[in-house]
Design a protein that fits this description.
By secondary structure, the protein is α/β, with parallel strands linked by helices. 33% of the residues lie in helices and 18% in strands. The chain is built from 14 helices and 14 strands. The longest helix has 17 residues, at 72-88.
């Protein structure tokens, strides 16, 4: 079975954007949402800036009990799910058998923010090595097991089909959508709620990236700190957020008259089996993932109109994926616009891939390539067109999205203009 997959609903909670519309306005304008960390006292940290969401769970309609029970990552996912379902005009009770509707969520660190907070309580601020479980909240299981995020999304939507959580680090947001698309493609589901969510701005998470010096120390200039593909780049900016998508089998979407943003044509996943944080030169594994995704989508390199890059802003990654583009797309890589929205909203770990897929779908819809902000001095060793500073109009029929993560995970996805019968 080889069924087609449409994106019919988009929900986003990202830095600088309270919903999908605000998110698109931000990234299409080239505006940075990076600021000094406010969620905790980061004065002792090497990197003290982040992409924080202006997220108010009370304003989002969460009850006091829900706020107490759910980690911030789950709250972000549920809020994005509500928006995506409303955007799709989807009423599962009327249009879909709930058993034919599933959930696939990506998260790199799950309920780390709540675990961090609760450890601080149980250890009395770190003064006690022996923890007294009597002080623990009754919801610790939800924080310890990331699948609770997917369960909350399923309960929100009334989905009773396949439910899963994908945790492959920084590629989880792509691979959760790939998994959902595969279930529809093979006939196991007609509708999937797919995306990613991570609430990363916690002391332990910030400290971990500080320790390996992966994040930028450019604390005095947060607006311009994230500089993918720039000669002066010196690390990524940590962020939080969520994006959830409604995926539907194409005929299912057409029959109910749904709006189609784009189709998911193909995907590919590889691992380098090489190093936890290191990357091979020339990007062979990412190049293979791209080739697999293009082949599944029935596209050749010359048909790629835009590449939405991983573009983290580290010396290693930007060079690695540029080599992979040249390797997989050949000479067409030099004619293809590439950009990174992490330059504006930072890197939200397991959520960012889904947020970037949402950006790709919105870019296809708008006919506009979001820019790479803060790219004033393109690295001469890279040499591609990274769409600096200003958005660019374009007729986007085939868009390539890629991601790279610790552990050697390499992912690619191809999105195509929705509903056409090419």
């Amino acid at each position: 079975m080889n069924r087609r997959i449409a994106i019919t609903g988009i929900g986003v909670r990202a830095p600088g954007g309270g919903n999908a519309k605000e998110f698109w306005k931000l990234i299409s304008s080239g505006t940075s949402a990076i600021r000094t960390i406010s969620l905790f006292d980061a004065s002792g940290c090497r990197s003290r800036i982040a992409g924080e969401c202006d997220f108010d769970p009370v304003a989002e309609g969460f009850s006091a009990q829900e706020i107490r029970r759910m980690d911030r990552s789950a709250q972000l996912a549920v809020a994005a799910t509500r928006e995506a379902v409303a955007d799709a005009g989807l009423d599962l009770a009327e249009t879909t058998d709930p058993h034919r509707c599933g959930v696939s969520v990506g998260s790199a660190i799950g309920g780390t923010m709540s675990l961090d907070r609760e450890y601080n309580v149980l250890s009395d601020g770190g003064r006690k090595w022996l923890l007294d479980h009597e002080y623990a909240v009754p919801h610790m299981y939800n924080y310890l097991v990331p699948t609770s995020i997917a369960a909350d999304v399923a309960w929100t939507a009334g989905a009773e089909g396949p439910v899963s959580l994908v945790s492959t680090g920084c590629t989880a947001g792509i691979e959760s959508v790939s998994h959902a698309a595969q279930l529809i493609r093979e006939g196991a589901a007609d509708v999937m709620l797919a995306g990613g969510s991570d609430a990363s701005i916690s002391p332990i998470c910030v400290a971990c990236f500080d320790a390996i010096k992966a994040t930028t120390p450019r604390n005095d200039e947060p607006d311009t700190a994230s500089r993918p593909f720039d000669r002066t780049r010196n690390g990524f900016v940590l962020a939080e957020g969520s994006a959830m998508l409604v995926l539907e089998e194409l005929n299912h979407a057409r029959e109910r008259g749904a709006h189609i943003y784009a189709e998911i044509g193909g995907w590919g996943v590889r691992a380098n089996a090489y190093h936890m944080t290191g990357l091979r030169t020339e990007g062979p594994e990412l190049a293979q993932a791209i080739e697999v995704a293009l082949r599944m989508a029935g596209r050749v390199p010359e048909q790629v109109d835009y590449v939405n890059a991983h573009g983290s802003g580290t010396k290693q990654n930007d060079s690695h994926e540029t080599d992979a583009f040249k390797r997989s797309l050949g000479g067409h890589a030099y004619r293809t616009p590439v950009s990174s929205i992490k330059s504006m909203i930072g890197h939200s770990l397991g959520a960012i891939g889904s947020i970037e897929i949402a950006a790709c779908a919105l870019a296809i819809e708008a006919g506009l390539i979001p820019p790479t902000a803060n790219l004033h001095e393109p690295d001469p060793e890279l040499g591609l067109d990274y769409v600096p500073l200003t958005a660019r109009p374009a007729d986007l029929r085939t868009v390539l999205k890629v991601g790279s993560g610790f552990g050697g995970f390499q992912s690619a996805m191809v999105l195509t203009k929705g509903g056409s019968d090419e």
